[in-house]
Amino acid sequence: MRRLLLAAALLAASGCATYQGARLYDRGTLALERGDAAAAVADLERAAALVPHASEIQNHLGLAYDAQGRPGEALAAFQRAVALDCDNEAAQRNLHAAEARTAVAGEAK
Residue 82 belongs to what domain range? Predict the structure, then answer.
């Protein structure tokens, strides 16, 4: 449902890049849901380039990076998502979890 709301909001902003960004976000999210992290990263990186102001895209890109074992890039994407929309609760949760994992990894060294 949230994915559809984002797509609608992106379309309301109009423009070909925004429309293509919404399509890539949807496709990348579906790839993430089926466990295809490589396809998710590819689509979500393109979506983020086309619609850089979309917090949800950054959040899902962080999830895709995390699924691909790229914690530093995941953390940065979650930080961007929260910076773009501090009310994005999913991004806040993901950022806190990524920060906790980073702290634990730092202590293990």
Answer: 2-108
What does the alpha-carbon distance between residue 36 and residue 44 come to, in Å, rounded to a whole number? 12
Number of domains in the chain: 1
In order along its 109 residues, the chain shows pLDDT tens digits of 555 555 555 555 556 778 899 999 999 999 999 999 999 999 999 999 999 999 999 999 999 999 999 999 999 999 999 999 999 999 999 999 999 998 877 655 5
- Integer Cα distance of 92 and 51 in angstroms: 20
Residue 34's CATH number: 1.25.40.10
* Gap between the Cα atoms of 7 and 27, Å rounded: 11
pTM of this prediction? 0.84
